[in-house]
Amino acid sequence: MKSCYVSIDRLTGIVELEAIDDIKTGDFIVSELDKGTCLGTVISEPADTTREGLKKIGRKATEQEVKDHYALKEKEQYSFDFCKKKIQEMALPMKLLSTEYLFGGTKLLFYFISENRVDFRELVKELAKEFKIRIELRQVGVRDEAKIIGGLGNCGNTICCRKFLNNFSIVSIKMVKEQSLALNPSKISGICGRLMCCLAYEYETYVSCKKNFPKIGKRVKTPQGEGKVVKHNALASTISVQLDDGKEITLPVKDVSAAEQPKGNQPPNVSDKNKPKNDNDRTQAREKQPNHGNHNKPKNNIGSKKTNNQ
User: Fold this and answer.
1) Mind listing the pLDDT tens digit for each residue in 9-57?
2) Assigned fold of 72-140
3) Can you give the pTM of this predicted structure?
4) 98: which DSSP letter?
5) Residue 310 has pLDDT above 70, yes or no
6) Cα separation, 46 vs 42, whole angstroms
7) Is residue 100 within 8 Å of residue 112, measured between CB atoms?
8) For FRET with 154, which of 18, 29, 113, 285 sits at 20 to 30 Å CA-CA?
9) What are the beta bridge partners of residue 240?
10) Domain coordinates of the chain in residue numbers?
């Protein structure tokens, strides 16, 4: 099976589709995606792939279909302004982000963001009355908002989700710590307020490089003496060690080895935890044990008589 990459639109981005015969770079194609029928542009030559479950290119688009589609695209600004005006009139707690006509004018999509659920039934009626087309309102998250609006990241380049990312991968604080980055929200967060997607790009590389590194806080032996690990530098394959005399040194990880734990820090033997240490301890242990054999026996005869008379 062969596949190729197709650019759909700014929200869907670039997708990999199963190729059909006689497809080449620059061709306009029609394909059925999750949101409906879409027009796309082939941006790579078909190549063999082992991936399964790819959606298939339906057919090539004709020149007239392409012209009609771009004519619809020119009407998106009017639909955006009309919907925004109605939202303000109805005082709905939502922010309109974008509008999109699907291929062939089969559907008009409105993307919005809101902190809560919104009852937009009356809004849909007004939109359907105006545009005489199937209307669909889609609530998206802050990451999708950044992808639709765009902007510049901390690196100074166009944000990845706007440029080439199609799916948002899971980014965790563990990835930040693995790369020894400062836990400063302004440094590790994107314009969407979430952890930057690029933190996941090199995570596996850092994990692989630090596979044989001693953990932070572990005691190690160095040519200058013993100390504990305080910092990793995965790319340079070095670690920083704070020696027992307070001096901090940086050296290759191959020059250090694990230090023996002091005997005083060894955990006690669980089996010997309750074992008496000497003869005096054994005697005290026997004296403290209750006499279970006489537990229910009366203490004197008087008590015994009272029991018998009851």
Assistant:
1) 877 878 889 888 888 899 999 998 888 888 999 988 888 888 888 888 9
2) GMP Synthetase; Chain A, domain 3 (3.30.300)
3) 0.67
4) E
5) no
6) 9
7) no
8) 113
9) 231, 250
10) 2-61, 72-140, 173-207, 219-258
